[in-house]
Specification:
Number of domains: 3
GO molecular function, one term: ATP binding
Keywords: ATP-binding, Coiled coil, Kinase, Nucleotide-binding, Phosphoprotein, Transferase
InterPro entries: BphY/WalK/GraS-like (IPR050351), CheY-like_superfamily (IPR011006), HATPase_C_sf (IPR036890), HATPase_dom (IPR003594), His_kinase_dom (IPR005467), HisK_dim/P_dom (IPR003661), HisK_dim/P_sf (IPR036097), Sig_transdc_His_kin-like_C (IPR004358)
CATH architecture of the largest domain: 2-Layer Sandwich
Number of helices: 11
Strand order of the largest sheet: 2-1-3-4-5
Protein name: histidine kinase
Bound molecules: adenosine-5'-triphosphate, magnesium ion
Distance between the termini: 65 Å
Structural class: alpha/beta
Largest sheet: 5 strands, parallel
Catalytic activity: ATP + protein L-histidine = ADP + protein N-phospho-L-histidine
CATH class of the largest domain: Alpha Beta
Mean pLDDT: 91
Oligomer: single chain
Strand content: 15-25%
Length: 406
């Protein structure tokens, strides 16, 4: 049996094709009524299964046209479509001479059985070839009614969907605003807390430093070597704590205040930062390569802080290198334009890379490379405030690359 399947959905055609081919039929396809007419004329199938709503020419018009051809008008024609307005379509289909109107979707075996049953019944009644074609006027009247109802139905459906989408959208927006303001206020609290804690801790720490200094100066002779060693450790620890408090203050400064959005010449900023480093460490020879024309939109003051830390790190961790190279260049990260600071310094083991963006996390010893471990944490906060991201990649002994977007 040769079956013509007419449907604008390629998938639906495929499902029907597999089903009927599996039962040994030869299947030909068309994507709309107009193509259906052409294929029907060329192939003269034994059965047509057609969708209703299709572009160019829909199923009703297809059947109506088909009935005008003597050699085609007796072919059993089964509508297989998802119904919107129910009986009215089935009525028009019957009036046009369709064998049946089946509602999509059906299980493949169900569809096959049903088609078989319909064909057998049709054969028995032997009325198909005699059905005269419907008059054009009559067809147009019924057809326009069906189409109008269907359109109304569709418009109503779309309006409802639209309304519920708008409602959902409004609700989501409201929730985002609410959550954002909760988050902002929690962040503000946290920042204020860390600011005041580090501020308030300074006074007792100053006492600790002052008195241990007095102890060292006035009573050193009365302490033995071990006592003096303990005292020195206390003093070192309190200095370290003062440094950490400074770092926390610096960190909270990087997220305070309004964020400016201006055009920033990152190339110029990078050269400025590198110049400062070179002046502060004239003994270091670093081959610095800054790409021209790097531009970003953001807060110039904060972006300078980012470069100070990144170029500063590259500078610091290339110290042992005979020929230190630090490069700052534009790049791409997940389809967004990004910037990178790369060095050929000591690098590190990538297993701990994520931790480095938290305060006080370091991979190198103080005596080897001094630092507080706050730079990358500050960089991350500033970049996040700009809506960007940052990552660090490294290999032991082969250097590091920090990439960021803003
Ligand atoms: N370019 C780099 N090469 C090798 N290791 C790096 C590099 N940048 C960062 N790191 C590792 O990440 C750690 C954290 O960096 P971060 O800038 O936060 O702190 P720091 O430089 O040690 O101290 P601070 O920046 O507060 O002076 C460093 O101690 C180092 O172990
Ligand atoms: Mg640093």
């Amino acid at each position: 049996m040769k079956v013509l399947v007419v449907d604008d959905s390629r998938n639906d055609r495929k499902v029907i094709r597999y089903n009927f081919e599996w039962h040994g039929c030869h299947v030909v396809e068309a994507a709309n009524g107009k193509q259906g007419l052409e294929v029907a004329a060329a192939e003269v199938p034994d059965l047509i299964i057609s969708d209703c709503l299709m572009p160019v020419m829909d199923g009703f018009r297809f059947l109506h046209e088909l009935k005008k051809f003597k050699e085609l008008n007796a072919i059993p024609f089964i509508f297989y479509s998802a119904i919107y307005t129910g009986s009215r379509e089935a009525e028009l289909a019957a009036a046009l001479g369709a064998t049946a109107f089946l509602e999509k979707p059906m299980r493949p075996d169900e569809l096959w059985d049903e088609v078989g049953r319909l064909l057998a019944a049709e054969l028995a009644s032997e009325r198909e070839a005699q059905a005269p074609p419907m008059h054009e006027e009559e067809f147009l009247r019924d057809y326009s009614q069906v189409v109008a109802t269907r359109l109304e139905e569709k418009v109503r459906e779309l309006t409802e969907e639209n309304e519920s989408l708008l409602r959902l959208n409004g609700e989501l927006e409201r929730r985002v605003v609410e959550r954002t303001s909760q988050l902002e206020s929690a962040n503000r609290d946290l920042e204020m807390f860390s600011y005041s804690v580090s501020h308030d801790l300074r006074a007792p720490l100053r006492h600790l430093e002052g008195f241990s200094q007095a102890l060292a100066e006035e009573y050193a002779a009365k302490l033995n070597t071990i006592g003096n060693d303990y005292l020195e450790r206390i003093r070192r620890s309190s200095r370290r704590m003062a440094d950490m408090l400074d770092a926390i203050l610096e960190l909270s400064r990087s997220v305070r205040g309004k964020l400016a959005r201006e055009d920033v010449d990152l190339s110029a900023l990078a050269r400025e930062v590198a110049g400062q480093l070179a002046r502060s460490q004239p003994e270091r020879k670093v081959d610095l390569r800054v790409a021209e024309g790097m531009a970003a939109r953001g807060d110039a003051r904060l972006l300078k802080v980012v470069l100070e830390h990144l170029v500063g790190n590259a500078w610091k961790f290339t110290q042992p290198q005979e020929h230190a190279v630090v490069e700052i260049f534009p790049t791409e990260w997940e389809g967004h334009s990004a910037f990178a600071v790369r060095d050929n310094g000591v690098g590190f083991d990538m297993a701990y890379a994520e931790k480095l963006f938290s305060p006080f996390q370091r991979m190198h010893g103080q005596d080897e490379f001094p630092g507080r471990g706050i730079g990358l944490a500050i960089v991350k906060r500033i970049v996040s405030r700009h809506g960007g991201k940052v990552k660090i990649e490294a290999e032991v002994g082969r250097g590091s690359t920090v990439t960021f977007t803003v």
